[in-house]
Amino acid sequence: MADTVIVSDGNFNSEVLNSDKPVLVDFWAEWCGPCRMLGPVVDEIAKEYDDIKVCKLNVDENQATAVQYGVMSIPTLILFENGQVKNRVTGYMPKAQLIDRLGI
């Protein structure tokens, strides 16, 4: 049972790209209604799936990483595996659909 890890431009490489297990990153912002709706779903995934690391990155405070991964709309969730983008989804959706679309 793990908590969500807050990542930034400064620690993205060490926390996400160099992780020894798959990492799900929630690109979000405080002012984004769908992001706030998705937040608790992302937290549930973090607690239920021990085989993946779950992180959140505030795009307003960490624009370089958001731009690097082409995040144009939020919420965007990107699943990284071995430092590479494995899958991505954009927008709010129920947990079961999100898990299915991401393949976790």
Protein described:
This protein has 104 residues and is of the alpha/beta class. The chain has a single domain (5-102), classed as Glutaredoxin (3-Layer(aba) Sandwich), CATH 3.40.30. It is 35% helix and 27% strand. It has four helices and five strands; from the N terminus they run E-H-E-H-E-H-E-E-H. The chain has helices spanning 12-17, 33-48, 63-68, 95-102, and strands at 5-7, 23-28, 53-58, 76-81, 84-90. A five-stranded mixed β-sheet has the order 1-3-2-4-5. Helix 2 (33-48) links the parallel strand 2 and strand 3.
What is the strand and helix layout of this fold?
Layout: E1 5-7, H1 12-17, E2 23-28, H2 33-48, E3 53-58, H3 63-68, E4 76-81, E5 84-90, H4 95-102
Parallel strand pairs: 1-3, 2-3
Antiparallel strand pairs: 2-4, 4-5
Estimated helix fraction: 25-40%
What letter string, H or E per element, gives the SSE order?
EHEHEHEEH
The CATH homologous superfamily: Glutaredoxin
pLDDT below 50 for ≥5 consecutive residues: which ranges?
none
Query: Which structural class best describes the helix and strand composition?
Result: alpha/beta
What key phrases describe this protein's structure?
Glutaredoxin; 104 residues; single chain; alpha/beta; 5 strands; 4 helices; 5-stranded mixed sheet
